[in-house]
Design goal:
Largest interface: A-B, 88 and 94 residues
Shape of chain B: globular
Number of helices of chain A: 10
Distance between the termini of chain B: 54 Å
Helix content of chain A: under 10%
Radius of gyration of chain B: 22 Å
Number of domains of chain B: 1
CATH topology of chain B: Serine Threonine Protein Phosphatase 5, Tetratricopeptide repeat
CATH class of one domain in chain A: Mainly Beta
CATH topology of one domain in chain A: Ferric Hydroxamate Uptake Protein, Chain A, domain 1
Mean pLDDT of chain A: 86
Low-confidence stretches of chain B: none
Largest sheet of chain B: 2 strands, antiparallel
Distance between the termini of chain A: 25 Å
Number of strands of chain B: 7
Structural class of chain A: mainly beta
Radius of gyration of chain A: 31 Å
Order of helices and strands of chain B: EHHEHHHHHHHEEHHEEEHHHHHH
CATH superfamily of one domain in chain A: TonB-dependent receptor, plug domain
Oligomer: heterodimer
Number of helices of chain B: 17
Strand content of chain B: 5-15%
Chain lengths: 984, 425
């Protein structure tokens, strides 16, 4: 597909050059040079531009990469340029070099690298919008299972945060801040043209095990990805209209390439461990805190409120975190691919397998496997093109039914797991028993995409793309009788949930390219019809006769809580784009899209979205070239436009009854929702201005972009008091949110030579989020959540004045002077949890066959930590409570231990620092010289070692800062893998 | 292009309220959320007062057993949430039936009566747990999101009006299945008697209680072990529960019971009270005896019909309601007769109470041992007789007089700007 669109763009370039290329040999008895332009793998490259250096003679390579050029200069050099490849200058000499073969190297990170945009392709140089591209090479250098994890620290303006580091766990991506109060803030994901589930699948009874909310993208094999393009501004996203407000992530899979059949195998093995533990009290510190709590309140401990002090053996200690999270996970990954083809047909076939153990005790395990197939056909005249991609992947995740973070962090060190008779001790919630509650999730994903295009006449292509996508999630959780507290009437229970999401999408499209004046006009018009049907059922089977039959639905004596879901989502739109590029100097880009979505009620379904973008490549101006010769590239660009957001549940406008719980054998009917027929699109206006500069022949590239996104007509599940019957209803709210920010990107080819090379890139983002207006905020149900003019992630709490040195009690500010400390009257803003700034620093060193790549990620922010209970219950506390008040006269900010529940107010005053610098990735590889291996048929061999999350620098007093206090997540794991990649 | 039909697994209200079986299904649905509200409440109300003690040391449970609730307590929220979710369903039925066509007037009356009964039951629970509460009588979201608290007496007035309607609308017999799992006329009358008693309208309380007792539909069971079995003769209203047991059962599978009968309640049983043997059981763990409530005995769920249902209203309580109403009106003989009916069934002799004060106090004591761990009666009785602080302060170190009302859940105060928190929170 890449090739096809290139052809479209280049056809126009050929037209421009035609006149010059045919500069005749008549006037001078010159020489004729012939040859072939190929890529690194000897595939011919049609459409490359060739120029005799220092002359105005140029030509372009033909369909087979062949070229012929006449020149009077008998000895000189030939300059070859081609989009997406590094420009090359080759010396020639008419005596020897009449038949040249010129290999071009792909140019992934520079200005000429291909960028995939909505319904087309361009380059960074000619793009009027804001797009960041992460290439297969960057992804390959990481041993991640979820492709989204490979984006962390790579792109400015994109905050990637791991919600749970266990296999299959969630990864949250936010592009340019939170623009929506409550509708989804996830970007739109598109894989080869087919929209993909963005967040956790919607459905019936979805089970979130120890790995938390499921990230559907973890089923995708990173090895099949050619590039991930992140679309940020209006110019890039408004072609996706109503779904572009939160940005768009375009995932493009690998395609078959011309050339000899090549077989690649990549095998790696590794181990993972938890990257950081949560610092908690040891046994002595814990017992002292609990004794202090009773002493301070003058309450006598008894066997009910203090089994930890009176009944348990206070000399025996267990390190619960080591017990639960001390394990080592082993992982194995095998990828194979076979590709090849001729000028007309190319194919790629790949298989992948990954097996990850778990750091948790027991038999947790994650397996992923699948296959990918791509076939491309081009007719002999190159007018007809066909492309087919089929991707099937499945994963099997055996994990725990629920997170054991609580058990690991708060279980007292002296807690005896078992009674003397060997049965579980239930004086407090028993975390070891919870290990017997297990869950299995099986995901299967099939994506099929077909594209047919035909060149009706030069410059005019018709294309139709049709895709089908099926995502299914099949889950079972088993809770044996023994794993539950027998004191409260447990039942052996199993939960079953089965959900599928099926989508198909058809997108016809017409592309037109024409040279007008000294410029090129490209235009496209297309339509989308998408249908998504989600179905699911779930049920609970109780009282299963035998533990070994727990996962068997027919062994349950009682089937309860059956539920099913069905939603249909239809989406239709018309989109168009016109782009004019004058002399590669002035660019203007116009986008328009009209969308209709079934998520809105009758009369509210349509919305229009548009954008205008422009760029001026001022470095092409002669006066700049003359006055600023060191400036190799300079572009000013700006865009403005609108996008929308329809990430809400289906049918919210419809008042209806659905099936409720069974009552006395009757299947009942329950009101489904508070319906509102009047809501419509949430829209975001995006404004951007950017300056792009290149110095020293683009060895230094610098981009600074400023953006302002204003989101209004907020679609919210309007939070209402429970007394209204439901917690929320769907509505538009005239609140306006503004995200502004500055994104800086610096790319430096620090050392460039034949031996040692060092490439370094830094990205840095300063985001700002502000609630600009919210009419009636004070009297709304959000009155205590948001503050006008402040960040949406504002955290409110009591204001701590200090701790009374005599009593050890915390003193809080009585903000409303009513003589008592109460919520919400005395709450103040403590700060915000969104980052002050974040970024990443990537370095790539190469020396001969060696390559060392490293990525560091940094975030400056505050985030809640794990909160102490200050001895109120037999639960362990974070190490930070050691500084608490202990005796009269102590000057401290941490109140005394107490058996009364005093910690809640104190904890609400805390919003600790959660900044960090993480060595996200470190990859070392050595590529063996082909000469040594060619006898064995090996054309290339790479040996590599990859480390993920090896090191994090952060506040010592807290758990990994990427994980919020009270979260059930585990931070990204520390992983080291070693592998071998061979191509035959 | 983007038009879609309603999903096949959902019905629009105009279809629900024009079809008899759908109306019946919507009516039955009210009881499912009512049941979830109560299972949670009864256990916690027991440990909040002097009935139960618990080994459960989670923050949520400890706040109840310490008598020091916080506004963030999730059980306090879920009790509130379930009761109001049930009120929404009742209001939706009341509104839907107003305009419905195509269903018989007898079915319409029965379902309307049940909806009013259920709404009254929820409001009665709410006003007794939280004090002044929002009086929600519509499904209109614009009204409900800004609603303020109504004085307790106007909430009780609504309860009484709904129940009076209920006694008029519903039939004597149990609807649909014939099982006692949905309200009939007598369930409304029994709750109405209790509501009048709480409202100190003793004449009406007696009148309604008598109508139930004299209906001939109910008799006190001789065997105390059968009082909580499904559809027994003493039961006036019971709830069915999907999980296979009543979910009110507190019998441990093994080991120390999570919820135990408090020493205070154990001591309240007179010698030879058959209820202490029938409704309290014990287990010995490592040499220590633990006592637990044994009204509901069916621990493990079994396939097939349930042996026990959660009992909401039963004739024994109606006798005690009438006894108290009579005593308050000076009919000491009639009061003693009703009281002794209950005592004799429990194997005890007549109460030794001659004056009105002694009689009232004997009735209160009888309520404590007859109705423990049922309907939150102990908690409500201690409050309406003004004795709660005197009883609770010695038992709970953190008890404050303001603890007699639960806090309004924090989430609720934050979402409704007109909702004011109870004092002390």
């Amino acid at each position: 597909m890449k090739k096809k669109i290139l052809l479209g763009v280049l056809a126009s370039l050929c037209l421009i050059f035609r006149a010059a290329a045919q500069s005749t040999p008549n006037d001078n008895p010159g020489i004729t040079l012939t040859g072939k332009i190929t890529d690194e793998h000897d595939n011919p490259l049609p459409g490359a531009t060739l120029q005799i250096a220092g002359s105005k003679i140029y030509t372009a390579s033909n369909q087979d990469g062949q070229f012929t050029i006449y020149t009077s200069i008998k000895k000189g050099s030939l300059l070859v340029t081609f989009i997406g490849y590094q420009s090359t200058q080759v010396a020639y000499d008419d005596l020897h070099d009449k038949n040249l073969t010129i290999r071009l190297r792909t140019d992934a990170n520079s200005l000429n690298g291909i960028q995939v945009i909505g319904y087309g392709k361009t380059t960074k140089r000619l793009n009027t919008g804001s797009v960041a591209t992460v290439s297969a090479k960057t992804i390959e250098n990481q041993s991640v299972s979820n492709p989204l994890a490979a984006l962390q620290g790579q792109v400015s303006g994109v905050l990637v945060q791991t919600q749970n580091g266990l296999p299959g766990g969630g990864i949250k991506i936010q592009i340019r801040g939170q623009g929506s109060l409550a509708s989804g803030t996830d970007p739109l994901y598109i894989i080869d043209g087919v929209p993909f589930l963005s967040a956790s699948p919607y459905g019936s009874g979805i089970l979130n095990g120890a790995n938390g909310i499921i990230s559907p993208l973890s089923v995708i094999n990173p090895g099949d990805i050619e590039s991930i393009d992140l679309l940020k501004d209006a110019d890039a996203t408004s072609i996706y209209g109503s779904r572009g407000a939160n940005g768009v992530v375009l995932i493009t899979t690998k395609k078959g390439k011309k050339g000899q059949d090549r077989f690649t195998v990549d095998v790696s093995q590794g181990i993972s461990k938890i990257s950081r533990l949560n610092p908690v009290l040891n046994l002595q510190q814990y017992l002292k805190e609990r004794h202090d709590a009773f002493g301070n309140d003058q309450v006598t401990p008894d066997v009910y409120n203090a089994p930890d002090l009176l009944s348990w053996d206070t000399t025996k200690s267990t390190d619960w975190q080591k017990y639960f999270y001390g394990g080592t996970a082993h992982l194995t990954s095998v990828q194979t691919s076979l590709s090849g083809g001729d000028d007309h047909n190319q194919y790629l076939f790949s298989l992948n397998y990954r097996n990850e153990g778990s750091i948790l005790p027991g038999n947790e395990n994650y397996k992923k496997s699948g296959g990918y197939f791509n076939f491309n056909h081009h007719s002999a005249d190159q007018r007809f093109n066909y492309s087919l991609s089929v991707n099937y992947n499945k994963d099997d995740n055996h994990t725990l039914y629920s997170s054991i973070n609580n058990g690991a962090f708060i279980t007292p060190p002296d807690f005896p797991v078992y009674h003397t008779d060997g049965t579980f001790n239930w004086e407090i919630s028993n975390p070891v028993a919870a290990l017997e509650q297990r869950q299995h999730s099986a995901t299967a994903y099939l994506n099929v995409n077909n594209t047919i295009s035909y060149r009706l006449f030069p410059g005019f292509d018709a294309k139709i793309s049709a895709g089908y996508n099926n995502f299914s999630l099949n889950q079972v959780a088993t809770l044996p009788f023994e794993s539950q507290d027998p004191g409260i009437d447990p039942v052996a229970t199993a939960f079953f949930a089965n959900n599928t999401s099926q989508k198909y999408i058809i997108e016809p499209q017409l592309d037109y390219v024409k040279n007008i004046g000294q410029g090129t006009l490209t235009a496209l018009i297309g339509g989308t019809y998408q249908r998504e049907q989600d179905e699911g059922w779930s049920l609970e089977g109780d009282d299963v006769s035998s533990p070994s039959l727990l996962g068997n639905i027919s062994a349950a004596n009682n089937i309860v809580n059956q539920a099913n879901t069905y939603t249909l989502y239809k989406y239709a739109s018309l989109f168009s784009r016109v782009n004019y590029n004058w002399k590669k100097k002035y660019l203007i880009d116009l986008n328009f899209r009209r969308d209709a979505s079934s998520r809105f009620g009758p009369g509210k379904q349509f919305g229009n979205f548009y954008a205008i973008g422009g760029a001026w490549i001022f470095s092409e101006e002669n006066f700049i070239k003359n006055s600023l010769p060191w400036l190799s590239y300079g572009k000013l660009r700006s865009s403005y436009g609108t996008t929308g957001n329809d990430q809400i549940s289906d049918y919210q406008y419809l008042s209806s009854y659905g099936s409720g719980l069974v009552y006395n054998g009757i299947s009942t009917l329950s009101p489904s929702r508070l319906a509102n027929p009047n809501y419509s699109w949430e829209t975001t206006q995006k404004l951007e201005a950017a300056l792009e500069l290149g110095f020293l022949n683009d060895r230094i590239l610098f981009t600074s972009a400023w953006y302002k996104h204003t989101s209004g007509n907020q679609l919210i599940a309007y939070k209402i008091p429970f007394l209204a019957g439901f917690p929320s209803y769907q509505a538009n709210f005239p609140a306006v949110i503004q995200n502004t920010g500055l994104e800086l990107d610096l790319n430096i080819q620090v050392i460039k030579g034949t031996g040692f090379n060092w490439h370094s890139s830094l990205n840095f983002t300063i985001p700002k989020n502000k609630l600009v207006s919210f009419p009636g905020l004070a009297s709304s149900s959000y009155a205590n959540t948001y503050i006008m003019g402040q960040d949406l992630s504002v955290v409110k709490g009591y204001k701590l004045l200090g701790v009374d040195p005599q009593t050890g009690l915390a003193q809080y500010a009585d903000i409303n002077h009513d003589g008592k400390i109460s919520s919400p009257g005395d709450l103040v803003a403590l700060g915000k949890t969104s980052p002050d700034f974040f970024g990443g620093w990537n370095n790539d060193f190469t020396y001969k066959g060696f390559e060392l790549a490293l990525t560091a990620e940094f975030v400056k922010r505050r985030y809640p930590g794990y909160q102490p209970l200050l001895g109120a219950y037999p639960y362990n506390d974070p190490l930070s409570v050691l500084g608490r008040w202990e005796k009269p006269g102590d000057i401290t900010t941490i109140p005394r231990a107490s058996v009364n529940i005093s910690s809640a107010q104190y904890n609400s005053t805390q919003l600790p620092d959660a900044s960090y610098v993480r060595l996200k990735n470190l990859a070392l590889s050595y590529t063996v010289k082909p000469g040594l291996l060619s006898r064995m048929g090996v054309s290339s061999l790479k040996i590599y070692v990859i480390g993920e999350n090896l090191f994090v620098l952060a506040n010592k007093n807290r758990f990994d800062p990427e994980i919020s206090g009270g979260s059930t997540g585990i931070p990204p794991l520390k992983t080291v893998t070693a592998g071998l990649k061979a191509t035959f | 292009m983007a038009g879609i039909d309603p999903p096949p697994n959902q019905l629009t209200p105009d279809k629900v309220f024009t079809d008899s079986s759908s109306v019946v299904a919507a009516t039955a649905n009210m009881y499912t959320s009512l049941g979830s509200a109560d299972a949670n409440f009864l256990r916690n109300a027991g440990s909040y007062t002097d009935e139960l003690v618990t080994t459960n040391v989670t923050a949520v449970a400890t706040e109840f057993s310490n008598g020091s609730l916080t506004v963030a307590n999730t059980s306090v929220l879920s009790i509130w949430q379930n009761l109001y979710a049930t009120i929404y369903k009742a209001n939706a039925i009341i509104e839907g039936l107003k305009t419905s066509r195509g269903i018989s007037s007898s079915l319409k009356d029965q379902c309307l009566g049940e909806a009013k009964f259920v709404r009254a039951y929820c409001l009665y629970q709410l006003v007794n747990i939280y004090g002044d509460v929002p009086l929600v009588t519509t499904t209109d979201v614009t009204v409900n999101t800004r609603i303020a608290r109504s004085p307790a007496n106007s909430v009780m007035a609504q309860v009484i009006a709904d129940l009076n309607d209920g006694t008029q609308l519903m039939a004597d017999s149990y609807p649909f299945s014939g099982e006692k799992v949905e309200a009939n006329k007598w369930a409304a009358a029994a709750l109405l008697a209790k509501a009048y008693l709480y409202a100190k309208d003793y004449a009406n309380a007696e009148l309604q209680a008598s109508s139930v007792i004299n209906s001939g539909s109910y008799t006190l069971l001789d065997d105390l072990n059968s009082v909580f079995t499904a559809n027994n003769n003493e039961a006036i209203l019971q709830l069915w529960n999907a999980t296979g047991s009543t979910s009110l059962c507190l019998v441990p599978a093994s080991g120390v019971p999570a919820y135990q009968v408090s020493p205070h309640l154990l001591a309240a049983f007179e010698p030879n009270d058959l209820r202490e043997t029938a409704w309290v059981n014990s287990i010995v763990v490592s040499g220590t005896t633990f006592y637990y409530p044994y009204k509901y005995k069916q621990r493990s769920p079994v396939a097939g019909p349930l042996a026990e249902y959660s009992t909401y209203l039963r004739l024994a309580e109606t006798y005690l309601v009438r006894a108290e109403a009579r005593a308050q009106q000076g009919d000491l003989t009639g009061a003693a007769a009703d009281l002794n009916t209950i005592r004799i069934r429990a194997g005890l002799s007549d109460a030794n109470a001659a004056t009105q004060t002694e009689l009232l106090s004997a009735i209160m004591h009888e309520r404590q041992v007859e109705l423990f761990y049922e309907g939150g009666n102990r908690f409500f009785d201690l409050k309406r007789t003004g004795t709660i602080n005197a009883v609770m302060q010695p038992l709970k170190p953190f008890w404050k007089p303001t603890a007699q009302l639960f806090p309004i859940p924090q989430a609720e105060v934050l979402s409704d700007p007109n909702l004011v928190q109870n004092p002390g929170y």
